[in-house]
Automatic annotation (TrEMBL):
Organism encoding this protein: Parashewanella spongiae
Biological process, per Gene Ontology: methylation; signal peptide processing
Prepilin peptidase A24 N-terminal domain sequence ranges: 21-143
Described purpose of this protein according to its UniProt entry: Plays an essential role in type IV pili and type II pseudopili formation by proteolytically removing the leader sequence from substrate proteins and subsequently monomethylating the alpha-amino group of the newly exposed N-terminal phenylalanine.
Protein name: Prepilin leader peptidase/N-methyltransferase
Keywords assigned by UniProt, alphabetized: Cell inner membrane, Cell membrane, Hydrolase, Membrane, Methyltransferase, Multifunctional enzyme, Protease, S-adenosyl-L-methionine, Transferase, Transmembrane, Transmembrane helix
Length: 305
C-alpha cells in the first residue's frame, strides 16, 4: 500500500486520472440517489400519514373499500430503495445492460437513446458523471493522495447529489446534510482544515447566519425567503472550514445566486417572485472555499491593505 502511495505521489497525473475515472463511476450512483432518494422520502412520509390515519382516525379507514384499505395499510408494498429495483428504461421497462451503465461512455454508445425502444435518455446522466469526475480530479491535483483528498472527495460527491435534488425538488434532505455536518466535525478531530473548537463554532454560526436572515426577511415581508435545509448546508461548511470562512461563502453564494436569478428573469425563464433553490449556490461557493478559500482571502487582504 505504501509503495502504491509513493507511486501516486511520484506520478500526480496518474492519480488525477484514476480519481476522475473512479469518481465518474460513482457519478452513476449519484444519479440514482438524485432520482430515488426524494421518491423514497415521499413514500416514507405517505406511510407515516397512513399510519397516523390508522391509529387516530380508524372510523375513516373502515369506510374505505378493500383496495383503498390495502393502500391505506401499505401504500407501497413493492421494495424500492437505492439498490432495488435495478435500473431500467422508464418507458419500456427493459433492464439496462452493464456496459450501457459505463460512465459517460455508456450514454455516448447509446447515442442518448434506450437500446430497446429508442426513448431519449437525458443528457443529465453523463453531465453528472463528468462533473463528479472533474471535481474529484481537481481535488486529486490540489491535495494529492492524502486524507484531505479522501474527505473532500466524499464531501464533493454528496454536494453534487444535494445540488441535483434541490434543483429538482427544492429539497435538501437531512439524510445527506446531517451526515456531512457530523463528518466535518469528526474531520476536525483528525487535524482537518480547522480545530475542533472552530469547527463547532462554525457549525453553529453557519446555521444561525442564514436562520437570522430567514427570520428578518419573514418579519419584514411576511414571506419565507429560504428553507431550513439551506441553514443546515451552511452549518456543514462551518463545520468543515470554521467560522472564519463563512463570510466568503455567504458572499460568493449570494453573488452567484443574484447573477443567475437576474439572468433567468431577464431571459424570461423565471418570473419575478417565483422561488429558486439556494442550495446549489451555497454548495458551489462552499466547494470553492474548500479548494481556494484561503488563497482568495489572502489575495483580498493583500490588495485591501
Amino acid at each position: 500500500m505504501s509503495e502504491f502511495l509513493i507511486l501516486l505521489n511520484a506520478q500526480p497525473y496518474l492519480f488525477v486520472v484514476i480519481a476522475f475515472i473512479f469518481a465518474a463511476m460513482l457519478g452513476s450512483f449519484i444519479n440514482v440517489v438524485i432520482h430515488r432518494l426524494p421518491v423514497m422520502l415521499k413514500r416514507e412520509w405517505q406511510q407515516e400519514c397512513n399510519q397516523y390515519l390508522n391509529e387516530y382516525h380508524p372510523e375513516k379507514v373502515k369506510k374505505l373499500g378493500e383496495t383503498e384499505l390495502n393502500k391505506a395499510i401499505d401504500p407501497f408494498p413493492e421494495k424500492y430503495n437505492l439498490i432495488v429495483p435495478t435500473s431500467a428504461c422508464p418507458k419500456c421497462n427493459s433492464k439496462i445492460k452493464p456496459w450501457h451503465n459505463l460512465p459517460i461512455l455508456g450514454w455516448l454508445i447509446l447515442k442518448g437513446k434506450c437500446a430497446n425502444c429508442g426513448n431519449a435518455i437525458s443528457a443529465r446522466y453523463p453531465i453528472i458523471e463528468f462533473i463528479s469526475g472533474a471535481l474529484v480530479a481537481t481535488l486529486a491535483w490540489h491535495f494529492g493522495p492524502t486524507i484531505d483528498f479522501v474527505a473532500t472527495a466524499v464531501l464533493t460527491l454528496v454536494l453534487i447529489a444535494l445540488t441535483g435534488i434541490d434543483l429538482d425538488e427544492m429539497l435538501l434532505p437531512d439524510n445527506l446534510t446531517l451526515p456531512l455536518l457530523w463528518l466535518g466535525i469528526i474531520f476536525s478531530l483528525t487535524d482537518g482544515f480547522v480545530s475542533l473548537n472552530d469547527s463547532v463554532i462554525g457549525a453553529v454560526a453557519g446555521y444561525l447566519s442564514l436562520w437570522s436572515v430567514f427570520w428578518l426577511f419573514k418579519i419584514v415581508t411576511g414571506k419565507e425567503g429560504m428553507g431550513y435545509g439551506d441553514f443546515k448546508l451552511m452549518a456543514v461548511f462551518g463545520a468543515w472550514l470554521g467560522w472564519q470562512m463563512l463570510p466568503l461563502i455567504i458572499l460568493l453564494s449570494s453573488l452567484v445566486g443574484a447573477v443567475v436569478g437576474i439572468s433567468l428573469i431577464v431571459s424570461k425563464k423565471l418570473h419575478s417572485g417565483n422561488p429558486i433553490p439556494f442550495g446549489p449556490y451555497i454548495a458551489a461557493a462552499g466547494w470553492i472555499a474548500v479548494v481556494w478559500g484561503q488563497d482568495i482571502v489572502n489575495w483580498y487582504l493583500a490588495h485591501a491593505i
